[in-house]
Amino acid sequence: MMQKERITPDLVVKYIIYVNVALFVASLALSGREIQISLNPFTAFSPSMNALIFLGATGTIPIDHYHEWWSLISANWLHGSLVHILFNMTALVQIAPLIIHAYGISRMLAIYAIGGTLGFYLSYLAGVGVTIGASAAICALIGAALYFGKSRGGDFGKAVYKQTTGWVVSLAVIGLLIPSINNWGHGGGVVAGIFLGWLLGYNERKQENAGHRIAAGVCIFLTLGVLTWALVSAVYLSI
């Protein structure tokens, strides 16, 4: 008799990484000969702009010109280069287990999905033309960790707050040094994560309930629906 695979924190993180990698491979495949291959590590193996737009890059151009509001969701799963996705997935592996420990799997997924979307919405309001990347969602996790550390207090809470504050400072410095970084998306993600951490609560104050599981389920359903639509339409448009 087959047993169901138990959903563990490691498995959740792996699934998120698998989806990101699958979309990155799809963006390269759709780029064809337009893939950028260079000695610059920041641009090596970069998908074409057309492929990224087709798959759901967000910003004022996709939303205002093509009315693709769904791109606020899909953009969280797209990346502009090999280094870009490696950096973001490494950050995810570091921060996600902490958030799952503090908030549980359902709330972590809700914070990741909703926080990333809100981060990109702020960057849209700020006038960013085209943007992609999981960093807005990851910054939402960082924001939730900031709230948890500050709210919980004690030695563990202080350690979490100190570490995540260091991450925020590092993000700000990187954002100032690299012009292409979407600081609005990062900042919006952090603020959204703080708000969602307060709204949803963490395990030590509020145990996971049906509302949290429903929120996570809705986020998963919408995300998979949007990504499926984006992939199918991208293949159709590239034919």
What does this molecule look like?
With 239 residues, this protein is mainly α. It has one domain (23-231): Rhomboid-like fold (Up-down Bundle). The protein contains ten helices and no strands. The protein has helices at 9-31, 49-55, 60-66, 71-74, 82-103, 105-125, 135-152, 154-177, 183-200, 210-238. Helix 5 (82-103) runs parallel beside helix 7 (135-152), helix 6 (105-125) crosses helix 10 (210-238) and helix 7 crosses helix 9. The longest helix is centred in the C-terminal third of the chain and has 29 residues, at 210-238. It is globular. The N and C termini lie far apart (44 Å). The mean pLDDT is 94.
Descriptive labels:
Peptidase_S54_rhomboid_dom, single chain, EC 3.4.21.-, 239 residues, serine-type endopeptidase activity, transmembrane helix, mainly alpha, 72% helix, Rhomboid-like fold, membrane
